[in-house]
Design brief:
2 copies of one chain form a homodimer.
Chain A (H helix, E strand, L loop, with lengths): L2 H5 L15 H12 L10 E6 L2 H19 L2 H6 L7 H15 L5 E8 L14 H13 L3 E2 L9 H8 L5 E10 L13 H4 E3 L8
Helix pairs in contact in A: 2-6, 3-5, 3-7
Chain lengths: 206, 206
């Protein structure tokens, strides 16, 4: 597929079929992840690629608890009152579906970043989220759906214990992969003129 | 360009020509950035796109000071003793070039993320670095070089004051854009077998 056709139609696909995805596709997706940059090219990333059904089931249970925590935060308590046919309502319904069906995705990728014991900061993310974005774009290029979720952090200790992830390694995201039940397409976004400034904050870019 | 040809040859281009890049290309690059996901689709991102030469010059001065700070950290003090023809030595020479010539890039993008006053964490990055990766991939698809740098954070207050960025907004990265002096190509990376695990940390993926 042409690059811009991929990148401008990679929306979060939270409804996935349980069918396995081809091993060759999974390898190509992971290979593309590794082509992303990381700070000083240190590549402190690791990816736990989970296909085992019982491990996925346990992650699904942990994730459902995380969803419960998220819904108790003030922001999401508010969002959950949005009309079901509003953009926020639809997004929430789709995210809720994921919270109930995460384990059914044939592959779950837990993306990690080593911090050498230092407390992670915003810019720690510069060494792992570009790789995750590459992973999701590669999936989309192959017709495989994905989304990124970080709410596993509510039960981070449980997830790390389950997967044997060392203490000095941070879990940055969980990415389910699978054939999409929904359709790819341009995601709903604020217009460029609202979020880009020219030369200085507040000045028009356009 | 075909998606995988773009994503597997997007290496950090730190040597850039001063020639302007086409406005249509810049708009397409920014538009692609916005197609990336963000937590809860909140799109708390902002991008200050700097073409003004005097603003770029001032950012270049600030950035040079940041480079000095970086070189005083234990890790980079060690890297700076690597042989100049080693992989680390070459990377450092290229990064040093950028530190001396950042202002010559025709466009600097300062990517920001709103945190609503909360302290940013690792996962704050999940709402801005995917967009930055999209931006750099789109640039590569159009033959425009870029790289991501976060060391501006050593002088974050100065950068924010210069650009008028509000206190509750975090600067996540500076991305120079310009025609590449070097060549695109597959970046040097650790093999997949070293960084991907199957089902559980430490188990082979392959």
């Amino acid at each position: 597929m042409e690059f811009f056709d991929v990148a401008t139609t990679q929306r979060s696909i939270r409804r996935l079929k349980p069918d396995p995805i081809p091993e060759t596709a999974l390898r190509q997706i992971m290979d593309t992840a590794l082509c992303a940059p990381s700070g000083g090219n240190r590549q402190g990333w690791s990816f736990v690629v989970i296909r085992d059904a019982s491990t996925r089931a346990r992650i699904g249970e942990i994730y459902r608890e995380c969803w419960g925590e998220l819904m108790r935060t003030p922001y999401y308590a508010g969002v959950s009152e949005a009309p079901s046919d509003s953009r926020e309502g639809k997004m929430l319904a789709s995210a809720r579906h994921l919270s109930e069906h995460l384990a059914e995705a044939p592959v779950l990728v837990v993306a990690c970043i080593a911090t050498d014991g230092a407390k992670p900061t915003l810019t720690t993310g510069a060494s792992i989220y570009p790789a995750i974005q590459n992973l999701m774009l590669a999936a989309r290029a192959l017709g495989i759906g994905s989304c990124i979720t970080t709410i596993h952090r509510y039960r981070d200790g449980q997830l790390k214990a389950l997967l044997g992830i060392p203490p000095e390694v941070e879990t940055a995201a969980v990415v389910p992969l699978g054939s999409p039940l929904g359709k790819f397409g341009r995601p709903p976004r604020r217009p460029l003129g609202e979020v880009a400034f020219g030369d200085r904050w507040g000045q028009g870019f356009e």
